[in-house]
Design a protein that fits this description.
It contains six helices and six strands. With about 170 residues, the chain is α/β, with parallel strands linked by helices. It folds into two domains: about 60 residues, no CATH class; about 80 residues, Arc Repressor Mutant, subunit A, CATH 1.10.10.10. Strands 3-2-1-4 form a four-stranded mixed beta sheet, covered by helices on one side. A hairpin with a 4-residue loop joins β2 and β3. The N and C termini lie far apart (about 35 Å).
Length: about 170
């Protein structure tokens, strides 16, 4: 597996991919988080090698996205190396949410013919592909933001960016 770290307006994103596709796009909150990812991959027997030259497409797409241009990342092939079958099903369904749109956790669960929208939210909480699997576009049925692993400020920032509003 190959990796790089991209600078984004609010920090850094760790990217990792196999020959098949992108496996991680994780916001780095601190250096210990990178060690956790490396440890997880090592336990799974997946060697990690830094090679920024292999991420030109991802770098270009993230740059476009953070400049406020519509980008859905559908052109990126994915290779899930983590997640249960149910989590992967939720992630793939969430990937279909259009840029700049939101749906509720309940609506997402209904799309999957699943009655438990809380488990859908929990699956989104394990999303290994920040922005590419747009879990930030899933909100509560009452219109409030709901949860987000990086905090509601970051979720609001991404939603405002996609609506063409000036992010705070």
């Amino acid at each position: 597996m190959f990796s790089t770290i991209l600078d984004i307006p609010k920090g850094k994103i760790f990217l990792a991919k196999t020959e098949k596709g992108l496996s991680y796009a994780t916001f780095l909150k601190n250096k210990s988080q990178l060690k956790e990812i490396e440890g997880f991959l090592k336990r799974k027997g997946i060697p990690l090698q830094a090679d920024p030259s292999l991420f030109r497409l991802e770098e270009r797409l993230f740059k476009k996205y953070f400049e406020g241009e519509e980008e859905d990342f559908i052109s990126l092939p994915l290779d899930f190396v983590s997640g249960t079958p149910y989590q992967r099903k939720v992630w793939l369904e969430a990937r279909k949410i259009p840029y700049g749109k939101t749906i509720s956790y309940k609506s997402l669960a209904q799309r999957l013919n699943h009655r438990g929208y809380r488990s859908t939210g929990q699956a989104l909480g394990r999303n290994p592909l920040l922005i590419i699997i747009p879990c930030h576009r899933v909100i509560r049925a009452d219109g409030s933001l709901g949860g987000f692993g990086l905090g509601l400020d970051f979720k609001e920032y991404l939603l405002r960016l996609e609506r063409g509003e000036k992010p705070v």
